[in-house]
Design a protein that fits this description.
Elements: H1 3-9, E1 14-15, E2 23-28, E3 50-61, E4 67-72, E5 83-86, E6 91-98, E7 102-103, E8 106-107, E9 111-114, H2 118-126, E10 132-135, H3 155-159, E11 167-170, E12 173-175, E13 186-188, E14 194-196
Parallel strand pairs: 1-6, 10-11, 11-13, 12-14
Antiparallel strand pairs: 2-3, 2-5, 3-4, 4-9, 5-6, 6-9, 7-8
Length: about 200
């Protein structure tokens, strides 16, 4: 979700490459033709927001730039680009790219690209520009590197990594800590209000 969209809707997805959940959810606006409708096969549910939850089967790695998920989730064609969501949370693990109805015990082409994909990870990190350090006190990951997928949890620690003239990007929330900034930087709050202080 783009920062201005997060502000407009008051919601956003946290991004992570460190979570391995049992259940995931795909929510999108796919083309629905089951049961068949009257207009070109599409029915009244087609291109409306539909969601389904299912089992994350595995994560496949065919190299650093070809890492994807396979899952048992009933998805509709044209839902590509939807987030692969850790069920019951607002954490996305990747991007849905291919789907269809379930056929037997194995999904028919239900897969998504993992945020562990190197090319996708670099694109996400550089989307808002260079020299940006990220903070998210609610991030579920274990590793803290200040990146969009592995943000720091505290503003004070993150501020120490921002280069002069860089940007400190803070996810909305309350950060109960004392912070001293001694490097010139821009502070961005792309997805809602931020309160800092003891």
């Amino acid at each position: 979700m783009l920062p201005h969209e997060g502000q407009g809707f008051g919601a956003f997805y946290r991004l992570s490459k460190d979570i391995d959940p049992d259940l995931i959810r795909i929510t999108g606006y796919g083309v629905d033709e089951t049961p068949p409708g009257t207009t070109g096969g599409e029915n009244s549910d087609s291109r409306t927001l539909q969601t389904d939850c299912g089992i994350l089967l595995w994560e496949e790695e065919d190299g650093p730039s070809d890492i994807y998920f396979e899952y048992m989730v009933d998805t509709a064609g044209a839902a590509s680009g939807s987030p692969v969501i850790w069920e019951g949370t607002s954490v996305s693990l990747g991007i849905h790219e291919a789907g269809g109805c379930l056929e037997g015990p194995i999904p028919a082409g239900n897969k998504g690209t993992s945020f562990e994909n190197d090319i996708l990870e670099v694109a996400l990190q550089n989307y808002s520009g260079p020299n940006r350090i990220y903070v998210d006190g609610g991030c579920p990951g274990i590793v803290e590197l200040g990146t969009v997928l592995r943000p720091f949890r505290t503003v004070a620690v993150a501020a120490g990594f921002v280069p002069a003239g860089g940007t400190l990007s803070i996810v909305n929330g309350v950060y109960s800590e004392a912070v001293t900034l001694d490097t010139p930087m821009t502070i961005a709050t792309p997805v809602g209000p931020v309160i800092i202080g003891e």
